[in-house]
Design a protein that fits this description.
With about 70 residues, the chain is low in regular secondary structure. It has no helix or strand.
Length: about 70
């Protein structure tokens, strides 16, 4: 016996949006744990000491080549 974690979503009616592909000819014991509502995101704001003091000038995304960031592409 082994455990595999699946996160399933339901629609407005409580029906599953999509069914996972499961191994054939097996039995499953299922325990449902309801996750907290993910639609209530907390809006992030900068610290009051720097709020309104930062100004972006120019292209910040292409200012340094990707090789300088040590990305494994």
């Amino acid at each position: 016996m082994y455990a595999e974690r699946l996160i399933l979503e339901t629609d407005q009616s409580g029906n599953l949006k999509s069914l996972p592909k499961l191994p054939a000819s097996k039995q499953f014991e299922v325990i449902f744990l309801i996750l907290k509502d993910v639609t209530n995101h907390v809006k992030r704001t900068p610290h009051p000491d720097i709020l309104g003091k930062v100004h972006i000038v120019g292209d910040i995304f292409n200012s340094t080549p990707a090789s300088d960031w040590n990305f494994s592409l």
